Amino acid sequence: MRSKDAKAVAALLAAGADPDTVDEQGTPALCLAVDAFDLPVIEELMLSTPPVRLNCTAPDGRTPLLRAVDGGDPVIASVLVSGGADPELTDAQGRNALELARHWHLTGTEAELRRRSGASSSEPVVRRAALDGWGSVCRELSLGGLTVRNGHTAILTELEPRYGIAPAFAELMGRALAEPDVGQPVWTATTLTLQGRRAPAVLAEATALRDRPNPLERYCGAEVIRLLNLFDESDDDPYDAPLVDLFLPWAAREEDPRVMRALAAGLAEAMDRRAEQLMPALTRHPDREVRRWALSGLHRLVAQGDPEALAAVMACARDTDAQVRESACRALGRAATDSPAPWDALAARLHDEAEAVRVTAAIELFVHDDPRGDEVLRALGPVDEDSPYHTAFYAVRYHHRPLHPTSP
């Protein structure tokens, strides 16, 4: 169970292995997987038959959920709670999951890590970037043989609604503002929690942030408004037109790239066609994420053969950033035109230095019955579920023209 090999764990479980097996110290497999931040193994154990005991305890008395809270991984904590883990069970100090998360939040991740490790004040904390179970970047801190992630405040923010606790907008935003990197877990937790309230007051408070001098406050407002629009389920799309009314002039004057990412994303996702008017210009924005969102927002115009949109996308196919080139290839695949230019632009990317760009270009050519990319696809060999191209390859697998293993 310490191998971090979810396939091996699945095979053992299928062969009849006990999901509640323990190691030589009596620590259950689920606790070990939580300690290793191994979400794939956790999910295999949770899918086992019979099901793993989510509220099992290790010799130290902590449940998997309490260990996840201590470890600071909000994705693992969320998966456990959603699966039925009991958030009311307590640790040796009598703290349930919410209280433990609040303790880490108030104490500070580094301060609590230093206290628990017993390390001297002069010993440096080792920090590194890590990916959580859903592919988002978080930060790991290691000291004195202990390693935690920086998601404790995010866990607190996500747990509070389960206890009927709804901190004020300003308090939640203040938690996020303490972290300047908007890609960190606390920002996701904060903006999603505010969005989840679905209250007119939340929209009003978010809108009021658009003119704040602090770009992080503007980002918070833009991202909350974007999420309100994205997850709105009403038939009349009440937030869509107001979002475009607000975001178009805002984007025209916004200088901070973080805020522009939220604005570009909101406009790209909007159904209001006025949002498309800014997309060609945004494909030339200095920030690559803004350019990628702009490309996403141009799919409909490219499919209609709009010449300005098509020219902007073709220019991005030569972008200095590989992820932008990949997004441009995906957008070019929507082209509806008699001109060979889009397909020639895709063919030009078949020798790109980035494999993902080559493969994306080849897939788009293949599904349009252009054989120029076939050799790139054949060179990949079997594309199984572990391949990063597994989902994208569906278009190849189920296309009417088969991809032959060798050239005809």
Automatic annotation (TrEMBL):
Superkingdom to which the source organism belongs: Bacteria
Pfam families per UniProt: Ank, HEAT_2
Entry keywords, A to Z: ANK repeat, Repeat
Gene3D superfamilies: Ankyrin repeat-containing domain, Leucine-rich Repeat Variant
Repeat (ANK) residue spans along the chain: 60-92
SUPFAM superfamilies cross-referenced by the UniProt entry: Ankyrin repeat (SSF48403), ARM repeat (SSF48371)
Protein name: PBS lyase
